[in-house]
Amino acid sequence: MLSARDRRDRPPEEGVAAELQGFAVDKNFLTSLKGILLETELDFLRCVSAIIIFLVVSFAAVTSRDGAAIAAFVFGIILVSVFAYDAFKIYRTEIAPGASQGDRQ
């Protein structure tokens, strides 16, 4: 049988399992202030990048002047407004609560 000392003295294993060992989720980091801010910033970045992508695709689609292209443009503008509202709510509730609380005092 292998003891803990034998496993410690062996060279690290090669392969897929050894490569993925460093990608475990650190729950302590995600619940810390840095982890919460990172998650919020990534969510905000997701909204902003979706707004840019949908605007570009919508304006590119409307240049062909087909009925389907105009429908795609309208749908893209609706999605842009939904993502803009989501980004606004994320910014207002999670990124800048200290600034709004400081102004009230």
Pick out the low-confidence regions: none
Residues in helices, as a percent range: over 70%
User: Which class best fits the helix and strand makeup?
Assistant: mainly alpha
Say how many strands there are.
0
Q: How would a textbook summarize the main sheet? A: none
Radius of gyration: 24 Å
Mean pLDDT across all residues, rounded? 77
Any idea what the shape is?
elongated
**Number of helical segments?**
6
Give the H and E element order.
HHHHHH
How big a fraction of the residues is strand? Answer: under 5%
Distance between the termini: 67 Å
Q: Would you mind describing this structure in some detail?
A:
The chain crosses the membrane at residues 44-62, 68-88. This is CKLF like MARVEL transmembrane domain containing 5. It comes from Aotus nancymaae. Keywords: Membrane, Transmembrane, Transmembrane helix. Helix 4 packs antiparallel against helix 5. This protein has 105 residues and is mainly α. It has a domain at 28-96. It has helices at 4-9, 16-20, 27-31, 33-61, 67-95, 97-104. The protein has six helices and no strands.
